[in-house]
Amino acid sequence: MFTAKDKKYIKSHKISLEDIKQQMINFKNGFPKIELETPALVDDGIILPSEEQINRWVSDFDYKKSRYSITKFVPASGAATRMFAKLYDFLEEYDGSHEQYLQLIADKSEDGMNYFFQNIHKLPFYKDLKDHLLLRGYFLDKLIEKCEYKFILESLLNRDGLNYGELPKALIKFHSHIESAMTPLEEHLVEAAHYCKSNKGVSHINFTVSEEYLKMAKKYLKENRKKYEKKHHTKFKISLSVQNKSTDCIALDIDRNVVRDEEGLPLLRPSGHGALLMNLNSIKSDITFIKNIDNVLPDRYKPETYRYKKALAGLLINIQEKVFTHLRTLKKSNIQTPNKLNEILDFCNTKLFVKHPKEVYHYGTETLVKYLIGVLDRPIRVCGMVLNEGEPGGGPFWVKNKDMSVSLQIIEKSQIDTSNPEQKKILEASTHFNPVDIVCGTKNEKGKHYDLSKFINPETGFISTKTYKGEKITIQELPGLWNGSMAYWNTIFVEVPSETFSPVKTVQDLFKIEHRNIL
Hints:
Elements: H1 4-12, H2 17-29, E1 36-39, E2 41-42, E3 45-47, H3 51-64, E4 70-75, H4 85-93, H5 98-106, H6 113-118, H7 126-135, H8 140-145, H9 149-157, E5 175-176, E6 181-182, H10 184-195, E7 202-208, H11 214-232, E8 235-241, E9 249-250, E10 252-253, E11 268-269, H12 277-281, E12 287-291, H13 302-330, H14 338-350, E13 354-355, H15 365-376, E14 380-387, E15 395-400, E16 406-411, H16 421-428, E17 432-433, E18 437-441, E19 462-468, E20 471-477, E21 490-495
Helix pairs in contact: 3-13, 10-11, 13-15, 14-15
């Protein structure tokens, strides 16, 4: 199947032919569906904290955080192209005819193009677009009056304009503030300064970026970081990481032939956010906050966001302390008492949300100790969950494991066999959504960092369809970063307010009141 040149190219990505063979097998066989037990609900897998609990967790975090190294991890690889998909569609379809103009103005919806042009002054990059056009001798307001819609969009999206169509989402201006408009990259710096700052005043943050945007991100951070360091009394320790090429996967066409690029070489594609587990694994902090690049809010919503971030971390610290105490007890050479083992069994069930196999209660002491160590000696994550209000994406479920235990996991709809009526019913009964609001503890009781690759369920990958050169292709994605890549972590779900979650998936999202500061 592969020539010597192909093999050399694959090897240059540090991908073995055995890996490629396994990918081909996965294409042929697909991946098994997850077996859901029940949806995770409030008081059945999801904690709905009281104000007293939240305040206590926040207080615990503020009091104890000086003992821990903390990093914020921000997956920021994506380009903004999909954010402007509707604008590109308009550019392709709108011909400026009177008929199409009438159709345009007849659309009164808030996600329509008529609304976009009538409210363009509310967008955070409006001033930049206005100034750019002015330098070229055009007045934006006049262009709108003359219905020069395509010219306006071309000036926003194309290379000879603001080039927003080819920028990473991290560098698109999201919010208007008193001093200036801010990008998600800047907003995440501000957030990090409020809950990642060490007692020495250093705030650690890691952005994952696509290799093509690496220089651009470095330049932007160099130009902008100091004003935020001064304003928030911190020193940023920023690292930029790229998705490792060794995680790329081969692409096939609809006839299951290997797709080839312009040079005739096998097309190797990034394998989804699950590939970023290698980036996360390289972070050696005690506590790591994970949050997506596009989930940032303007100033008036920030205090509540900070409060819940601290609360999740405070809960993580408290749970982790108890886990470490139990592990040290179990690893002592003296014989454990039945009462102590039952106490630890109950802790795993009620605090770590692990439903044990029935036979566990009949184990002898030595076998039970081994089982409990296996349950406890894992990375821990506390995940914020919001009430599902129609956002696409994964959610929290109780999932059956191979050892017949049942544990909490974040599952994507594509992992569920919706042709099975029982599984579909469980999916439809789900009440919450995963906003990617995660706090991780990735060290054991001795302070040694876990090898996170050992806690993946490799059977939870995806086969998805993409487009390449106008043709449909199939690609393979690794188990998702917060899905199968964390399948064997200990997981705790906590309901957080929807006000702390407002991602920007399309440019129309920037019109929402959640993304507009009252200046």
